[in-house]
Amino acid sequence: MNIAADPYPFDFVPERCALLIIDMQRDFLEPRGFGEMLGNDVSQLRRAIEPNVRLLAAWRAANLCVIHTREGHLPDLTDLPASKKNRGTHAMRIGDEGPMGRILVRGERGHDIIPELYPQAEEPIVDKPGKGAFHATDLHDLLKDKGIRQLVVTGVTTEVCVSTTVREANDRGYDCLILEDCVASYFPEFHKWSLEMTKAQGGIFGWVSESKHLLEALEKWSTNMSEANAGNVGSVMVKQKGESTGAPLC
Ligand code: TIU
Q1: pTM of the full predicted structure?
Q2: Among residues 17, 65, 161, 176, which one is catalytic?
Q3: Tens digit of pLDDT for each residue in 28-82?
Q4: For 174-199, what is each residue's pLDDT tens digit?
Q5: Cβ of 105: how many Cβ atoms within 10 Å?
Q6: 176 in Cβ contact with 150 (< 8 Å)
Q7: Residues 20 and 165: beta-carbon distance below 8 Å
């Protein structure tokens, strides 16, 4: 199923595709978190919330695979290298006590995913200590186990964790589609150029599209699936091993 994208249409294969939502955490999106502490304006990121909410609802309705990530560290900070901790001249750093608990520490309020996009119980959450979601995590194994070959990537921030993850994913053999209205940066220029870099040179790291195109494709796919389940001739039926149709693919 082709989805309009740059630099050319993306061949969407729903049962082989996971939605990867990167770091939609309070520490990045809400006032008084890590992002704001770094001197950023969090309202720049909040514009991505609504498009992600719509996409996640449609993705769940289609019973496809969704994976959430969170950037953060163990309470003893043994997974926080000095090269990450000792950045800049800020009074507060990762691990310090902030208004939403210890900054970017697992289990703290600020580290958790915003309520609007909170994962459902069966949806995997990958806790990552780095910018890329593949570094020091089991994401690659998780995706291989599920037979996933494509990623729709959303979340924050476009040029940091989203971009790093897409580059890691492409090197590991995944085709990545970034939805530009579902990713955001504190710096609109970085957002723009990060997407330009992704799709330059024939899509050197992947494809860029908008959520409306994917929503249309999901609608068509879901209709096809329900017709197939109703026994209509000519429709495609996708089943997991030994399971009835309608079971989540992830
Ligand atoms: N600072 C910034 O733009 N981003 C991060 O620190 N992490 C993510 O992008 N998730």
Answers
A1: 0.93
A2: 161
A3: 999 988 899 889 999 999 999 999 999 999 999 999 999 999 999 999 999 999 9
A4: 999 999 999 999 999 999 999 999 99
A5: 22
A6: yes
A7: yes
**The predicted structure's pLDDT at residue 3:** 98
CA angle 136, 142, 146 (to 5 degrees): 160
Query: Please, are residues 168 and 135 in contact by the beta-carbon 8 Å criterion?
Result: yes
Query: Ligand 1: which of 157, 158, 178, 186 to mutate, most ligand atoms within 8 Å of CB?
Result: 157
Distance CA 95, CA 87 (A): 13
Task: Please give the Cα distance from 2 to 235 (Å, whole number).
Answer: 17
What's the pLDDT score for residue 225?
A: 86
Phi/psi zone of residue 234: left (φ > 0), alpha (ψ -120 to 50 degrees), beta?
left
Q: Which residues are near ligand 1 (CB < 6 Å)? A: 23, 28, 38, 71, 156-157, 160-161, 186
The atom number, within ligand 1, closest to the CA of 22 reads 10
**Helix 188-203 vs helix 163-171: crossing angle, to nearest 10:** 20
pLDDT computed for residue 241 by the predictor: 37
User: Are 178 and 185 contacting, i.e. CB atoms less than 8 angstroms apart?
Assistant: no
* Kind plus residue range of the DSSP H or E element containing 238: none
| Tokens, residue 180 | 């530009």
